[in-house]
């Protein structure tokens, strides 16, 4: 009787894992694809802006800085996804239904 009430009250931990595993990658990939396409769009249609130096006399252009931030964003998104999936997996492993 108590076990049945416990199952009814506590949600299935695999539901959280499935939600994180199914929906989150699509959202994160969508954000990154939009970011990369925006950079490509700027490179094609605003090449003077992307190719302009960051400061007067600098050899570093705005495009290089934007590309660096895109790489940092990709790494950050990958680490965030790994953290979320691992935490959902650990919650699944701690479930009382083992």
What does this structure look like?
This protein has 98 residues and is mainly α. It has one domain (11-93). The chain contains 4 helices and no strands. The protein has helices at residues 2-9, 13-45, 47-51, 62-93. Helix 2 packs antiparallel against helix 4 (62-93). It is elongated and about 60 Å long. The chain starts with a helix and ends in a 5-residue tail after the last helix. The model has no long low-confidence stretch (mean pLDDT 80).
List keywords for this structure.
single chain, 98 residues, mainly alpha, 4 helices, 80% helix, 0% strand
TL;DR of this structure?
With 98 residues, the protein is mainly α. It has four helices and no strands.
């Amino acid at each position: 009787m108590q076990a049945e009430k416990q199952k009814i009250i506590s949600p299935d931990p695999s539901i959280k894992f499935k939600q994180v595993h199914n929906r989150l990658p699509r959202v994160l990939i969508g954000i990154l694809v939009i970011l990369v396409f925006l950079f490509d769009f700027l490179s094609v249609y605003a090449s003077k802006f992307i190719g302009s130096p960051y400061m007067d006399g600098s050899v570093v252009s705005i495009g290089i800085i934007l590309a660096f931030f895109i790489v940092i964003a990709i790494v950050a998104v990958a680490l965030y996804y790994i953290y979320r999936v691992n935490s959902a997996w650990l919650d699944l492993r701690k479930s009382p239904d083992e």
